[in-house]
Amino acid sequence: MSSATSSAVPPAPSRAPGPASAFGWWLADSWTMTRRELARWARRPVGVAIGLAFPVMMLVMFALFLGGSMTVAGGGDYGEFLVPGMFVLTMAFGLEGTMTAITQDLQKGVVDRFRSMPMAPTALLVGRSVADMLESVVGLAVMVGAGLLIGWRWHGSLAAALGGVGLLLLLRFAMLWCGIWLGMIVGRPGLVMAVQILVWPVAFTSSAFASPESMPGWLGALAEWNPMSATATAVRELFGNPGAAGTSWPAENALLLAVLWPAVLLAVAFPLAAARFRGLGG
Amino acid sequence: MTEHVPAVRTEGLRRTYGDKRALDGLDMTVPRGTVHGVLGPNGSGKTTLVRTLATLLRVERGRAEVAGIDVGARPREVRKRIGLLGQHAAVDEELSGRQNLEMFGRLHRLGRPRAAARADALLERFGLEETGHKAVGSYSGGMRRRLDLAASLIVDPEVLFLDEPTTGLDPRGRTEVWNAVRSLVGGGTTVLLTTQYLEEADQLADRISVLDGGRVIAEGTADTLKAMVGGDRVDVVLRDRAGLPGAAAVLAEVAVAGTVEADEDARRVSAPVADRMAALTHVVRALHDRGIEAEDLTVRRPTLDEVFMHLTGGPADRVDRAGGAPHADRSGHDGKVSA
Q1: Three-state SS annotation for A84-113
Q2: Looking at the predicted structure, is the pLDDT value of residue A167 above 80?
Q3: Structure pTM?
Q4: N or C: which end of chain B has fewer CB within 10 A?
């Protein structure tokens, strides 16, 4: 050991004046935790790039390999139908990423340090959600770019298109908190794999890839009510892409459901996740 | 915290995991400004105690105070006053040492410039300035522990909890951590240190509480604890195992309360004695008369190992049968309480 060790620890600086309110501290702590995630990404750019490329690969596979033999119920180009569906898929599958990150975090000793510090208790979760949302914005931008490259276009106003993007991010935000909550329930990274498999049948039981009208009756009804279908149908409507037309109640009220579903999911998952985090060590 | 308020005080602290009692009515008082060792085998409740005091586990029953503050009622106030070095490095492995310390500084509300300055000072103090920019994942065990210790000292904690701070470290890493802990003492910080290394408690702690089955079964300085086993001891190591019964009989003549311990594998008999010189003289003469050849003959103070044996009725490294905290058994028991 160097001689430095035998010297005393220098006295600690005093605390900064900083925000006066608890809310101000909550914001500051949450931002610190967000920066932690961003710094981690900066240290593994390849992993981040792969994460962004995966949905693009899926889009290309579905559009170019399967697209030719697919028809859209009600008419229209399958590529135009598929791209918004793939946006929804990308947002919904964000659940896994968040879940994995939360379970890995909770396994780490560093959470013990956070929990033994006088920081805002939910800052770790909020930081995670903000960082994941930033990643999703980038991910969605990449997907929009890829969509444009394979010939997808929006046909309505820019405002409507931005509204579509907003609905997509809203779905992501809801799935994110579901991911945080589920991640804290399963606790172990190993169990995340089960979820990674389960999201596929859920995704296919939606209007992301095919219209529910083309599915067997009961499955079609299930697909109609899938939150992913609500967002998919709503954004198709806003982008002016085919597949938005439908005669069922969920299809006709897709815009409403695309707001309502994520709101309900958030209203359930957010308080449960926060309570679960506070209850760690109970 | 005023002088007379203890750094740590627990009263009838209880905690169960299923039907196992991790803490079973634990009473402990640690005066401020001291290093207090908590010594016990795996599953004796050490880690549960530290995690409860550090607000990581809820106080189920009983009462715990840190710096005079009720841990169950005001955990936030406790968190402002403590530092924690757990069994597993509580730093972000993917970030650099500096990024870690700056992050903890900001969370301790130092503000960005002061957090950065503090990170620099601590990296230098713990000999990590060269590696401060590297990801913690690439650090050696000793370096990681030092960073962990630095992270526990972002603000001067009134009470510093060290939960088995050297478990899993090589001797060099252990010395590094011991030196760092020693240098903290005198700064007014109270240190509560759990360990299963008897030597560690002996080296660092002013007072020691011995835990078994979630309760304090003995408390005092290392010397008082050693005295509990009966002052000095005579050890006789024989050349030949056959002489063991004879040697045991000889020792029984001088042993306090007639207690003689024999270890066949080590060819050793050992007994507590009252008058060391008289006992030694007697043993030498009696062994010679019986024609028993001793390879080694010593008079010594008892080790904490023997204190442990005496108090718990088993060796310190046995795995405890009840009250195992889920976190307490991760470290295994490689190399501890080496004979």
Answers
A1: HHHHHHHHHHHHHHHHHHHHHHHHCCHHHH
A2: yes
A3: 0.80
A4: C
Nearest to B129 by CA among B97, B90, B89: B97
Only one residue has tokens 């005079």, namely B68
Position A164 confidence tier, pLDDT thresholds 50, 70, 90: very high
Q: Give the integer Cα–Cα distance in Å for B331 and B69.
A: 31
Can you tell me whether residue B339 is helix, strand or coil? coil
pLDDT at B315: 56
Question: Domains in chain B, ordered, with CATH?
Answer: 8-81+157-226 (3.40.50.300), 230-301 (3.30.70.100)
pLDDT band at A143 (very low <50, low <70, confident <90, very high): very high
CA–CA distance, B299 with B232 (Å, rounded to integer): 7
Are B199 and B179 in contact, with CB atoms under 8 Å apart? no
Neighbouring residues of A249: CB distance < 8 A, sequence distance ≥ 6: none
Residues of B in contact with A123 (CB under 8 A): 107
- Tell me what pLDDT residue B332 has: 35
d(CA A59, CA A150): 9
Restricting to B residues 154-183, those with a Cβ less than 8 Å away from any Cβ of A are: 154-156, 175-176, 179-180, 183
Look over chain A and give the mean of its residue pLDDT values, rounded to a whole number. 88
- Residues A90-115 have a mean pLDDT of 89
Biggest CA pair distance of chain A: 79
Closest CA to A181 of A276, A282, A280, A281: A276
Euclidean distance between CA atoms B103 and A32, whole angstroms? 7
From the CA of A93, how many Å to the nearest CA of chain B? 24
Residues of A in contact with B110 (CB under 8 A): 13, 15-16
Buried b / exposed e over B311-335, threshold 16 CB at 10 Å, is: bbeeebbeebeebbbebbeebeeee
Residue ranges in chain B modelled with pLDDT below 50 = 1, 316-339
